[in-house]
Hints:
Elements: E1 3-10, E2 17-21, E3 32-37, E4 40-46, E5 51-54, E6 65-68, H1 71-98, E7 103-109, E8 115-121, H2 129-139, E9 142-147, H3 150-157, H4 168-171, H5 181-186, H6 193-196, H7 211-218, E10 227-229, E11 234-241, E12 246-250, E13 256-260, H8 303-314, E14 321-324, E15 327-330
Helix pairs in contact: 1-2
Amino acid sequence: MKVIRVVSIQFHPAGKMYEFNAGDLELQPGDRVVVETERGLGLGKVVSRVEEKDEALFTQLPAKVQRLLGLEDEKTLAHLSRREKEAYEFCQRRIKERGMDMKLVRVENLFDGSKAIFYFTADGRVDFRELVKDLAHTFHTRIEMRQIGVRDEAKMVGGLGICGRELCCASFLRDFQPVSVKMAKEQNLALNPSKISGQCGRLLCCLDYEYETYCDLRKSFPKCGKRARTLQYSGTVEKMNILTGELLLKQEDGKQVSVHVKELVDESAPSQPPPEPPRQQEQLSSPRREREQPPPKRQRPAPQQAREQLETAVAPLQPPVIVTDGQQQKSDDKPKKKKRNRRHGHRKPSDPKNNDKPVQE
């Protein structure tokens, strides 16, 4: 088994990574090296540590790293940068003079100067044959015109997104993933093109980052417009917040109630009356006085008991009895009056001899 030392290298910031044979070089992440590519010599940057892999794992052996970037290579790189700037300005003037419907994005020269690549964007096909003749006659090198999309343009130019950070495609995003409006709907975002579009005019790449998380969380939520109920409330789902787990229910009387998704129950579960709202305690400036208790009500006695009490209260007091010489004598010596049987309205008959005097009995 033959083992080779492999290292990953990228040619542009956040660009695709390619594996190369490090050979005997001791490379570290961040080193700039000169490598052999299909288009010729190129300048790349090491992004990983050297790893030993079996040669049988590769269908095609990776190209070998030529050398680390030296002083002469630094001078060559500065010269190529000046030529790229001149080629960009010259091509931009020719595009305006010819009135061509295209936008020039960037010019790149290979490290050995054998080819110049012009990147541009356009809505359709562009006839640039006359433009290529002007460029080849001026710079005396091979010219390649490459049409790219608006997302690749934003990756090359760079910039700041609506979040205030550097564009994902220009900082760490190496491959573009398809983004659809369904992702924005799943996350309850407003379908406003200015808010869900990036610098390139396409949908934000970050919509794809949390899409799977929202799909998993939504499985426990009822859909908007469906009926849902808790032990206290029942109504139709108006809004939902998937991250906080809150639902807004619209009851039959038109009132809206906020509940948590964990409070939802099945339709067959018994319902309970809604809880009473807490009463607000009144704050009084003076201390609260205790309420005077009313005197206890007097119970009316029973009729028999009341009659006995009345007879006891009305009964006359009997005079005391004095015992003298074996005889009982009352303390009151007054003679007892005879009872008179006289009817009301009738007088006692008088003496016939003396009409004026009454008859003595």
